[in-house]
Amino acid sequence: MANPIDKHVKTLLTSYTVIIVVALLIGATVGPAVSSALFQSDDEGTIAAVTIQGPISGPTADEVTRQLRTLRKDDSIDAVVLRIDSGGGSVAASEAQYRAVKRLAREKPVVTSVRGVAASGAYYTALPSDEIYATPGGLVGSVGVRALIPQPDGVPRSVTTGPDKAGGLTGDDIRGQVETLKRSFVDSVYAERGDRLALSRTELTNAKVYSGAAAVDNGLADEIGGLETAIAAAAEKAGLDSYEVVYRSTTPGVLSLLLGSEANSTDAGQVDRASLLTTRGIERPQYLMLWGDLNTSAREVRASGAA
Amino acid sequence: MELRDAALKGGVFVAVFLVVATLTGLGSIPVPVEGNETAPLTVDSHQPEAILADESAETGEIELDASGTEKTVVIDQSHNNSVSPEEISPLVTALTEAGHDVQFYTDRMASRQSLDETLSSADAFVVIAPDDQYDTSERRRIAAFADDGGRVLLVNEPPRQAARGATASTPMTNLAGAFGLGFDSGYLYDLAEYDTNHRAVYATPAGETALTDGVDRVTTHTARPVVGGSPLLVTNESTRLSTTRRQARYSVLARQGNAVALGDRSLLGTDYAYTADNEVLVGNLLEFLVSGSR
C-alpha cells in the first residue's frame, strides 16, 4: 500500500501545472538571453551597457573583469557604456577594474554614465573611459585612499616565525603604503584626464566628492547627460548610425542564482560591510578606495583630506 | 491510458530537462580562445618607481644636560588626561636619566594631597590633553606657580572624530587662557608639503630661541594650532586647518612667560619623538622644564 503522503507528492510532481510553471520560470529566465543570442538584429552595430554597482570587492572585480573581457573579445560589440553606481571599495579590486576598463578602452570606445555615485574606487574604474557623463545630481570624485588598522597590543598571541608575521605593520609602514597608493591613484587621474582636469594636485588630493555639475566644471567628468546620452556618444565614437543596445549586469542574475554558481557571492546586496572589510575572525589592515563614513572600531589612516 | 499519461509527462519532463541542460551548458562554454593573446598592459602610475613613498627616518637621541640640580617635574593625571607613563616614555626616561624626579599627579594622589601642596614642592608642571576642566582655584594656583618661577608645559591635541567632548572649546582652553595662550579647534594638514601623510605637517622655528635651538625642522602629527604668546614654531604656509580650511602659517608651539603651549601630544611619544628634529625639540622642552627659578 502506498503511503498517502508519497501519493500526494507524486501527484504534485506529475501535475502539468507544476511542470509548466517550472518550464515558464526557466523559460522567462533564459529566454531573453537566448533571443538576443539567436536573433541578432540587422542594425549596423551593437553597444553593450554594463552596469557596475555596489561595493567593489574581489568577487565583484572578477565579474567585471570577466564581463569586460568577453565584450572585448566579442567582435559583434562595437562600443561599451559603463553604467556606474558605487562608492568604491577595496583598493586592489578597484585597481583590477581600472585595468580591465583600460584594456577594453584600448580596443573599443568606452563611455561611462554615472548613475548615482562614481566615487573613489568606482571613479578609478571609470577613469580610462573616453568620456564620463554625469547628471547634475550625480556624485563624482573622492580621489584618495584610506587604511583601516586593527590595534594589536603586545606580543602576538600565536607563535610566529618573525615579528611581522601576525600583523607587523607599524604606523610608519601603514602611512607609507597609504601614501604610495594615493600617489598611484592621483597619478592615474592625471594620466587619464590630462588637460581636461582643472583641479590642482592639492585640490584633487583633498578627495572631495563633487556634484555632477561641479565635476563637469572641474574636469573630473566630461559632459552632463544620462545613460541615453552616453550610449549615443559611444555610438558616435564607434561610427554607428544605427545600433542596438544589449544590457549586461556584473551582478548575478536569476539564472546564476538558480544554478547556485559561485557568483552568488558577488550580489551587491550580500557584499555588506563585514565581508567587504574583514574576513571573519581575522583582523588585518584594509586598504580602501571607499567614500563614506565607516562605523568601525579599527583605527584609520587616510592619505587625503576627505577620502 | 495511465501509461500514455505517464509517458507524456515524462516527455514533458525530458524536454524541459533538455532545454535547461542545454541552456545551462551554454553558460559554461568557455570564452573562445581565438585571438586570446592580449597585449601587455603597462600602467605608468602602477609602477613602483613612480609611486613608492619613502618613510621618514627616525634617528637621534633626546639629550638633556645632567649637570644641573635635581628638579621635580609633576605630570597631571587627575583631570582625565589622556596620558600614561608609557605613552610619554621618551620624556620620562630622559628626565629620570638626567637625575630629575618625575611624579604623576594621579587621582589617588589627588585624594591625599592637594594640587597646592603638590605644586609647592614642584619645579615644573606638565598638563597633557585633559578631559576635565580646571576650576578657578586650580587655574589661579597654576598661574601663581608660573609667576613664582615654576615652568608650565601645556600639551594638547585635536579630539578624534566621535571622541568625547569634540568641541572647539576643550577643557584645556580655560587653563591655557590663564596664561594668554589657547588652542584652535580642528587639526592641521598640508596637501602640498608633508611627511608621508597630509596630517604630518612640517614646522620650522619662528626665530632664534632656546626652545628651538638646534631645530631645523620638526614633523608634527595631527597637530592643533596654538594661539597667543610668542610663536616659536610655525608650519609652512601651505598648511590648512581642518575646520576652516583656511591656508596660513600656524603656530604649533608658543611661549608666554614661564608657560609653553604645544599643539601636538604625539611629539612626546615613542612613535614620533625621533622623526626629523623632533628629538632636539623634545630635549629643549625638557631643558625648559628643569631650568626654572624655583
| Count of the domains of chain A | 1
* Number of separate domains of chain B: 2
Assembly state (oligomeric): heterodimer
Inertia-based shape of chain B:
elongated
Biggest sheet architecture of chain A = 8 strands, mixed
Distance between the termini of chain A: 72 Å
What is the number of helical segments of chain B per DSSP (H or I, 4+ residues)?
8
Structural overview:
The complex is a heterodimer of chains A (307) and B (294). Chain A is an alpha/beta fold and 307 residues long. Chain A has a single domain, classed as Alpha-Beta Complex (2-enoyl-CoA Hydratase, Chain A, domain 1). Helices cover 42% and strands 20% of the residues of chain A. Chain A has 11 helices and 12 strands. Chain A has helices at 4-13, 16-38, 58-73, 91-107, 121-126, 171-193, 201-205, 212-218, 227-237, 254-259, 273-277; strands at 45-53, 79-86, 88-90, 110-119, 131-134, 139-141, 146-149, 209-211, 223-224, 243-249, 286-290, 299-302. The model of chain A is unreliable at 259-275 (pLDDT under 50). Chain B contains 8 helices and 13 strands. The A-B interface holds A 14, 16, 19, 22-23, 26-27, 30, 33-34, 69-70, 73, 95, 98-99, 102-103, 106, 171-173, 175-181, 183-185, 187-188, 191, 201-202, 205-206, 255-256, 259, 301-305 and B 6, 9, 12-13, 16, 19-20, 23-24, 27, 31-32, 35-36, 38-39, 41, 43-46, 50-56, 58, 189, 191-192, 196-198, 200, 238, 242, 271.
Topology record:
The complex is a heterodimer of chains A (307) and B (294).
Chain A: H1 4-13, H2 16-38, E1 45-53, H3 58-73, E2 79-86, E3 88-90, H4 91-107, E4 110-119, H5 121-126, E5 131-134, E6 139-141, E7 146-149, H6 171-193, H7 201-205, E8 209-211, H8 212-218, E9 223-224, H9 227-237, E10 243-249, H10 254-259, H11 273-277, E11 286-290, E12 299-302
Parallel strand pairs in A: 1-2, 1-10, 2-4, 4-5, 4-6, 5-9
Antiparallel strand pairs in A: 3-11, 6-8, 7-11, 7-12
Helix pairs in contact in A: 3-4
Chain B: H1 2-28, H2 48-51, E1 72-76, H3 89-97, E2 101-105, H4 107-112, H5 115-120, E3 124-128, H6 136-147, E4 151-155, H7 171-177, E5 181-183, E6 188-189, E7 200-205, E8 218-221, E9 226-228, E10 230-235, E11 240-241, E12 251-256, E13 259-262, H8 278-289
Parallel strand pairs in B: 1-2, 1-3, 3-4, 4-13
Antiparallel strand pairs in B: 5-9, 6-11, 7-8, 7-10, 10-12, 12-13
